[in-house]
Amino acid sequence: MKNKENFLESCLFFNTNALSRYLLKLAQKEFKHLKLSPAHASLLLLLYDTPGISPKELGRYLHLTPSTITRFVDALEKKGMVKRKTQGKSTFVSPSRKGLELKKSVAVAYKKLYLKYTKILGSDTANQLSFAILKANGKLSEFLSNNE
Asked: In angstroms, rounded to a whole number, what is the distance separating the alpha carbons of residues 72 and 40?
């Protein structure tokens, strides 16, 4: 059993998945009162800064597949949080009036999440980890794009 523990301790895949699950639990608590998943809140944050963005661009920024973006937009549209505009074959997504009403609350929830995990991890550790993961994601994305 000792070898399995050592392997898992040094496995990036295992550790990032565990970290993701812990962060998701923290995030779900912060967004629960808004009746939004953290993923839907992320999409809304992006829409606040880039209203009229295409689903393709949403997927690129959020690192999600087109089908996942479609599901997210469908769910938020059903809640009245976003609206779609179609021009020819192109679709553009923006926050609705109801979605815009949550802008401050979504930002506050994200800030609380950030403060919570930085308090737990320490500010330096949280920031270094975030940038290291961002860099690793970029390298892995480039590798996968070139080897598909």
From this structure: 6
The burial class, CB within 10 Å (0-12 / 13-18 / 19+), for 130 is middle
How many domains does the chain divide into?
1
Give the domain CATH number at 97: 1.10.10.10
DSSP string, the chain: -HHHHHHHHT-HHHHHHHHHHHHHHHHHHHHGGGT--HHHHHHHHHHHHSTTB-HHHHHHHHT--HHHHHHHHHHHHHTTSEEEEEETTEEEEEE-HHHHHTHHHHHHHHHHHHHHHHHHH-HHHHHHHHHHHHHHHHHHHHHHHHT-
Residue 10 included in any domain: no
pLDDT tens string 11-35: 999 999 999 999 999 999 999 999 9
- pTM here is 0.86
Side-chain-facing half-sphere of 20: CA atoms under 13 Å = 8
Measured between alpha carbons, how far is 11 from 141 in angstroms, rounded to an integer? 19
Range of the domain at 65: 22-146
Is residue 108 included in any domain, yes or no?
Answer: yes
Query: 3 lies in a domain?
Result: no
